[in-house]
Amino acid sequence: MFHTDSYGTVEMFVFVTILFVFVAYTISIKFVYCRYSQLWPHLRNKIYTVGNASFCTTQERSSALLRNSEDDKPRVTGSETRALLVTAHPDDECMFFAPTVLKLVESQTAVYLLCLSTGNYNNQGLQRKRELLDSCAVLGIPSDHVTIIDDKKLPDDPAVQWSTALISSLILKHIRNYSISVVLTFDGSGVSGHANHIAIYMALRHLASAGRLPEGCQTFSLHSISLLRKYVSVLELPVSWLLPFDFCCIIGREEYKRAQKAMLCHRSQLLWFRRLYILFSRYMLVNTFQAITVETKNVKIY
């Protein structure tokens, strides 16, 4: 009888412990959302510095779908804050950066997207261009703010090393043409370890290190996290909040639905594991960034 009661006590203790952890974690998530809503204006102000450099003008553009360079795009006038998101492939913008795009658009920031390939790995480049524009429409990026590069030197292929010099040139040209005040991209691990993602970070770090960015232009890289943290969805939120970051974007339920809708625009990429990604990835809810600091050592370019 004593033995049975002991087991009952242990079971009750385990149940109470699990319940306590669940309640505590739920409260911590709600606390993060509440605290974040209070701090968002301060975080947003971090990117509201517009550089004082002299910027170039561009000619009027033609078709958004047929565009493959910045040369035919218009310059936006005025004193609005302009953010540039640099990605490697169609679907990167929503798969990894949807919370950032949604929060910036909500705060009246003009968001531009520079996608450095058509995603033609499986000869689906034309379809993926259309899907990208559909996704951007859902996220709130106008089609005339989207540039898709179609260059044989920048193929959608992790086995091909992209040129740091070429990427640097494309990014810098875009920054100057549109008076960009903040640039966001991947970090040195590329979130998924993709070589094309990492190449963009290396190019942006080179620009920062070489002092080639216009005065006042800030650069941020998206934190890469462990596989476990990556796939626990909203449960990862308190962890991200406790760890250091320079910039952060967190979205709620309604914005999360928009992020999902944007992902679903990439119909050619909706394999079973990407559907699981939509449901469980932390990147669909929260983005944390670190500033790309200026380094004194030389960065090798090729």
Essential attributes:
alpha/beta; seven-stranded mixed β-sheet; 11 helices; 45% helix; 12% strand
What features would you describe in this structure?
The N and C termini lie far apart (77 Å). Strand 2 (110-115), helix 4 (125-139) and strand 3 form a beta-alpha-beta unit. Helix 4 runs antiparallel to helix 10. The longest helix has 44 residues, at 2-45. This protein has a seven-stranded mixed beta sheet, sandwiched between helices. It is of the alpha/beta class. It has eleven helices and seven strands.
Walk across the major sheet and give the strand order.
3-2-1-4-5-7-6
Instruction: Specify the number of helices.
Output: 11
The overall pLDDT average reads: 86
The end-to-end span amounts to 77 Å
Radius of gyration: 21 Å
Q: What class, by secondary structure content?
A: alpha/beta
Reported for the largest beta sheet, the result is: 7 strands, mixed
Order of helices and strands: HEHHEHEHEHHEHHEHHE
Strand content: 5-15%
Q: In total, how many beta strands? A: 7
Helix content: 40-55%
Form type: globular
